Amino acid sequence: MLALLLINRRSRTGAANAAEVRDALREHGVTVIVRDADSPAHVDAALKAHSESVDMVVVGGGDGTIGMAAGALMRAERPVAIVPLGTANDLARTLMIPPDIAGACRNAVEGRAHAIDLGQCNDVYFVNVASLGLPVRASKYRSALAKRWLGPLGYAGNVISAYRQTEPFNAELIWGGHRKSVHTIQLVVGNGRYFGGGLAVARDAMPDDGNLDIYSLAPQTPLAMLAKLPAIVRGPDHELTGVSLLKADALRVNTGEPMSINTDGELLTETPADIRIIPGALQIKVPEAYFHLAESAASADAGPTYN
Fold first, then answer.
1. Domains in the chain: boundaries
2. pLDDT digits 0-9 by tens, 4-61
3. CATH of domain 124-278
4. How many CA atoms lie within 13 Å of 51's alpha carbon, on the beta-carbon side?
5. Which of 209, 216, 211, 220 lies closest to 238 in space, CA to CA?
6. Which fold has domain 2-110?
């Protein structure tokens, strides 16, 4: 088996663990071509040069790396394996890919290629979420030092600091012939199940269901926010006061004045935004355990389309 290994050495542990990933793949009998993946140009060049000759592409990095490479990976039409080397690694968590290098590399060889959806916000791709409000403010508090040393724990401090300074905003949502105005502190449009270091977009959100899962969180007092925190972490549902939920395959977001949008941890676009799902865009290697999760989510009662 021949694999193109794309390593983002700027991801949280990419530089430190690049050699270990390469050696772990070799131990499974994989011949490895190693290339840097710290910019879209590097990813495009590597895939253009090698995608037709390799059996799979292995991406070593975090959610931002996979999001950055998503368009090129979709065009390459090769199975993709993920070795989580980033800060949050939410897509790997969603797909139940082992968090350790040995387990992730074993999954790269033994896992099953499974089609997942891809989100697109304007001209930016995302694998987890596109979000406005609180997540944007939290990303601006993120420092390279905290990201490297605290990992996902760094997000908690960011959110606490950001909550104090995030102003509520008005947004118009347009989907499937419907139109709704919301007054919100956070608008999340999800493709995957998790974002922000393990927060769930919705309890039944899955990256292969052909839907965007959207929720709007109304402004809350600090005490009310604290009381809702457990439900928000595990995924809001229709019974949670102050939360509006909907599912759609495409959504238009208008906010009057342009607002930055956080796509998988990066601020690359702004409103007005056209957001859509691209069904089955990526073939990702996943372990068998993932399919049990998918079956459970499919059988869950998702409630009404809009609350």
1. 2-110, 124-278
2. 999 999 887 889 999 999 999 999 999 999 999 999 999 999 999 999 999 999 999 9
3. 2.60.200.40
4. 16
5. 216
6. Rossmann fold (3.40.50)
